[in-house]
TrEMBL record, chain A:
Residue stretches in coiled coil: 641-668
Pfam families documented for this protein: HAMP (PF00672), MCPsignal (PF00015)
GO cellular-component term (any): membrane
InterPro entries: HAMP_dom, MCPsignal_dom
Domain of life of the native organism: Bacteria
Protein name in UniProt: Methyl-accepting chemotaxis protein
CDD domains assigned: HAMP
Subcellular location: Membrane
Organism encoding this protein: Tahibacter aquaticus
Keyword Endoplasmic reticulum: no
Record family assignment: Belongs to the methyl-accepting chemotaxis (MCP) protein family.
Automatic annotation (TrEMBL), chain B:
Annotated Pfam families: CheW
SUPFAM superfamilies for this protein: CheW-like (SSF50341)
Name the record gives this protein: CheW-like protein
Biological process annotations from GO: chemotaxis; signal transduction
Occurrences of domain CheW-like (ranges): 44-146
Species per Swiss-Prot/TrEMBL record: Tahibacter aquaticus
Amino acid sequence: MNLGNAFRNVRGRIQYGTLLLSVVPMLLVGLLIGGLAFYLARDSLHERALQQVVTVRVDKTDRILSYFNELRDQTLLLASLRATVDAVSDLSAGIGAVSAQVPAIQSRERMQRFYNGDYLQEYAKLNAGASIDVKPFLEQLDDTAYALQYQYLADNPNPLGEKSKLKQADDSAYGKAHAAYHERVVRFVTASGFPDVVLVDASNGRILYSYAKRIDFGTSLSNGPFAKTEMGELFRQIREGGKPESFVLSPTRQYQPNFDDASLFIGVPVFNENRLSAVLITQVPFSQVNRIMTFDSRWKDAGLGDTGETYLLSLDDTLLSNTRSLTESPGEHSEFLKHIGTPEAVIKVSQAKNSDIGLVRVVSRAGEAARRGETGAFNYNDYRGEPVVGAFAPLKVLERDWIIVAKIDQAEAFAPVNSLLRDMLFAGIGILALTLLVSTYFSNRLARSVNGPIDTLQSTIAKLSAGDLDARTRMPPNDELGELGSALDNLLDERVATLAAAARENEQLNQSVIEIMQAVSRLSSRDLTVKVPVTTDVTGAISDALNFMTGQTAQVLRNVNDISNQVAQASGRVRERSASAMLVAAEGSREIEQASQELSDAALALKDIAGQASQADRAAEEAILSTREALNSVRETVGGISASRDLIRETEKRIKRLGERSQEITTTVNIIGNIAERTSMLALNTSMQAVAAGEAGRAYAVVADEVKRLAEGARGATQQISNLVSAIQSETIDTVEAINRAITQVVEISKMAERAGEQMRSTEEKTDLLVNSVRSIAETTSLQSRASDTLQARAQQIRLSTRQTADELAIQANETRNLDGYANGLLDSVRVFTLPAA
Amino acid sequence: MSNPTPILAAASGSAAEPPLVQTRNALRCGIRLQTSGGSLPLLLPADRPAELRRGMAICSVPNVAPWFFGMANLRGELVPVFDLLGYCGLGRTTRQRSSELLLIGTAASAFALPGTGEPEILQLSEDGAGTHTAPAQISEFIYNAWKGVNTHWYDFDFDRWLLQLSRGENPLPLPFSPSQTELSS
């Protein structure tokens, strides 16, 4: 149901209004309380999370400091032992003779095999397949180092990582001193967990003893291959400033003899009767540091849930302990390393070593704050970009500055708040639904109690509107609405009685009006016999007036009818007279028309004859003139033909002489042609002679060729002339024959012209007679034509008068017909009325 | 009447050596002999004068080969008239008592060919042509060929041909027999 529609009636307003009044305050109160509770709980949890990470950080700080102090103390203790002091003396005394006892060729091969084999294989394994060039190391080994490494590394039958199992390589003084000291160191390492213990001769930097036996064994930290490493730097610091009970913690760096693993060393001096005899260096076990920082991989048990962790950083943000993700999900850890921009090579090495220490840099606000010397806890996005609650602090470990961070993801820290919010939401929805249900029931009941009487009133009014005047509410007057219904019923009874009386009066009046309208309707159909009933009401006067008007109109129309009949009868008689007069006039007009036509035809015939006679007269005169001119022409022609005949005869003689001349031309042309032929032949032969003469005759050949061409041109021209002369002769013969035929014809024509002249003279005489006769006919015909014209003019006058009379009679007949029509129209107009009998 | 010694090879007297090849672009005289299969264009010897004469009377010689038409009188010298086409079997020239003759050579070494028409003065083209297109009957006498307009002009070794005539290497012997001295000179 649409809420807008629901509020359009009283029931809806009552029902939904009461519902809203009960639910909305409750909802608002619920939301307010819920929101307040949520924020209070969130703050409380946030505070608790901060306290938790701070507690963890403080705890880890204490433990790390305590552990490193313990390592330092153990190192100092070992350095202060008499056995160490003696071992330095013994080892340094015996080390010089070691090289002499080692076979050179055998050791060289064995060392090469060790470095290029075992060492590089292990290096590649721990560095993702990477390799290094070991040749420089080997080349920098002096004889002593070479001999020591051969005995305790290359020739050591134990595998890499277990080289410390060799106690004594030979029976030399060094071997014995090594065996004696090694026993003590093994016990020491087993108790403390140091990966390596190194004794360095303070005088020359040579590593006299090494527990782990790496490739720095026997080398000098002053000038050997590893002098520039962190261990070399540590040695130099101790040698230069070492005092009893002093110590130095090196930075964490990758150390090549340790397969480039991140390494951290503690160095302490060894004094022999107040003289610095050696430097004792121990390697810090990062496994133990990791175990402390990672709770031995039991973060959950430590209260850090699924995301909490602690880690150590150097000041350049390099990790000094492993992250939780490396331990729990190495795959995701690699992706994370890519995400923070770690180079691919470093990621591979990290995977190979299963360690982040000294390799991975993580940057966060916590690290930055701690680097500035701040200690605290706040919310921030950690190195993964995840929002965390973290605690941080700078950490000074054996005088070296580090950073410690403890953190937990906000999502986990605030998980109870979300749970609380969810529970509150579900509870609120349930309470709201229950409240809605109860409120709906009661509001419905309330709406029904008010809406029932209103519906009754509404339906009663609807029935009345539909014309049901008997409709009543019949509501008991129990309350205000009941009394309203009773009052409405009484009012309706009174009004219905009044309306019935008025209806009866209206009915009667309507009847009178209908009767008047019926009478008017019959009047409109021209029935003047109608009588409207005269009643006593207001329509009685109207009916009476209508009856009087109808009677008067009928009387007037009867009079009009009589007069019209008389007019029609008079018009009929006039029309008959006009018709007979018109017939007579028409007959006369036709007779006159015919007579006039006949006169006109006769006049035309006479005019025609007169015209033709005149034309004949002129033609006859022209004929006489023409005949005379023709006669003269014939005479002149006869003379001309005679002259032509003489001229043609003279022409014939000349043409014959021309033919004779052309014969002479032919002879001459033949001579010329013969000369051209000979010239051509001569030129050809000359050309051939020139060709035979070779290059010398080339110019001569050109001339001969030109001469030949000229001769051929002359021969061609001669031939053309000959052809032309032949054509002229042929044409001359044909011309002479044609002239002879022309002379014959001219003689014939001359004779014919003379005969024509005689006949023309005879024709001239006969034509004179004919002209005189025609002239007489023309004059007579002209006189008759003029008389006929006069007669025709008079007939035309009579015809016009007759036609005018006929026209006048036609107009009169037409007018008479119109008068008759008017009378009939008047009768027809009156006849449409039904008149009462007179 | 002088001794008719028309066959004089180009001074060397050795018929085996063909005449020197004419250099290109040189002017040459050529004739077109009308064979039964068309025309046969031949170049006249380059180093020997030629002359065309009309109305020359040919005096027939009895009991000779049909290709030997007879002798003609050229300014007091008797000149043999040979039908080259008839000799080579490429056709036959109509024999007439008075006809047009092409006289090749001078004095005693002259000979005549009938029915050659007017010789053409030619300039040899840059490009030579193969002699293999020459008719087989005369191929042994053709030593060079040149491209002309729509045709090939063949250098005919008249000396060799005349030498062959003189040696009797033909169906019928010649009516004269040149001396060995003349041949060698």
